[in-house]
Hints:
This protein has 9 helices and 9 strands. It has helices at 19-27, 70-81, 101-110, 132-140, 159-169, 187-202, 238-245, 250-267, 287-292, and strands spanning 5-12, 45-51, 54-60, 88-94, 117-122, 147-150, 212-220, 226-235, 270-279. It has a 6-stranded mixed sheet with strand order 2-3-1-4-5-6, sandwiched between helices. A hairpin with a 2-residue loop joins strand 2 (45-51) and strand 3 (54-60). The mean pLDDT is 93. Residues 195-281 form the KH type-2 domain.
Amino acid sequence: MNSYKSGFVAIIGRPNVGKSTLMNRLLGQKVSIVSPRPQTTRARVMGIKSLPGAQVIFLDTPGIDKAGGYFHRLMVKTATNSLEGADLILWIVEAPDPFSQDDKLILEILKRVKPPVLLVINKIDLVEKERLLPTIDRFQALLPFVEIIPVSATKGDNTALLESLLVQYLPEGQPLYPLDQLTDQPERFIIAELIRERVFRSVYQEVPYAVAVLVEHVRPREGRALTDVEATIYVEKDSQKAIIIGRGGAMLKKIGELARLEIEKLLGTQVFLKLWVKVRSDWQKDDEALKRLGYLQP
Length: 298
């Protein structure tokens, strides 16, 4: 009889290599928000996959790169801290650009950690197969990876094989969470992230990086399959507020309509979503604001 496996898998990599997309693919459900823009993930997001003989607990982390301001440094620290309690580390690089300056930074971090490291070369659907072997050879010389596996997180290529390898390298143990639990994130945090995702996908230039979302209320209506959700979108400047609202409120309406559909999937009810936009110029530097927004532990 095979023994049960369980443990934590920290997913790390530089921004925009597909960490969240891969975790969502492996879970079979959306837990981490995704967008084509780097640094979409700001906090450590847990995803729990319960299998017949194993429980794999994924830790999706912000992208690691050369830190900028205070909030950016906090995100990088969140990612590196996730390595400490991990049983296995999943380092994701991308096939079209497999070893950037930020990857060199991550390599130096991984040289100092104890858990085994499995390398995932993502986005193989974007390169010719002949380019993969030299990339694999190059990485094999850098670190004693337990496995190197090329995948496409968007198309699902090799993700079933990756799942089986993760289980293989996890330690024996009992389930650490209820078998029907998908994440440890509070409902309000997930709703805020779904709204922020729609901002990232709807508004361009640098505006999304100045945005934070705080969910004020989530109230089921009595006797109806309807939930009232109220949330505030914070920005740093009046000009950004104007962009988020849009002419005649058109942009805010678009963001709200798209976010509402995602929130309804999450809650399993119809949703009445009310959004406000407020300016708070210092939120990325204010510890109290970062705690309220869920980016800093109280």
